[in-house]
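Blinded run. Sample ID left blank on purpose so nobody reads anything into the name before looking at the predicted structure. Input follows.
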Amino acid sequence: MNIGPGSNVEIILELDELKEKIDVRRAIVHDVEGDRFILSQTTPPVRLSDVGKDARVTRLNRKGDQLHRRGFTGKLEEIIREYPLNSSRTVPALVIRKTSDLESYNLRMHYRVRPGSEWSTRIEVDSRAVNLIDISIGGALFSHGIEKPFEHNRTVEVTYRDGDGKRHAIPAVVRRVWTPSDARCDGIEFVAVRFTHMDRELERELAREIMGIQRGAIYKV
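Blinded prediction complete.
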């Protein structure tokens, strides 16, 4: 399955890593120039302040009775105010530069899930124990004692211990830091981080774990 001119696609733009759900917007591919994909502006529109952010372009394809989603990762490179759709009409358009090969996507993998208490022994941040609140393929939210606070935009290393006990280092960046006003949480800091790189094998492993947590939540009595 190719993504080319005329394809109906969904754009996943990393607008806010703290949202419970990812932001998916529909678009049409107007043209492809090498690795540059020119797409229609979305509703609501993508903003100029979003230029430079990571984006995923995906498309659903039917195989028999099943639907499969494939797509690629890219970078929002430009917003064109007047793209010449034809000789008599111009429209706003987005330019996304493709930075990966086509691969399978499951949008559910990007939703945040709340793991059980046993996960607190499986996640460390900069070699410090933390209380994991939720996690997704894109990042995590945790709390910890405020004695050593984290700084916004600081680069950190998240250590994830898989089901076999193997340790994996995941580079991340701190996206938000805050302390609650609730007196019962005095001395606690909350931190949201975004994972900045994850190899394919580790992403699949973490995705399997997340799907398992989702299934457990659905069937929990």
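Unblinding after everyone has recorded impressions. Residues 200-219 form the longest helix (20 residues).
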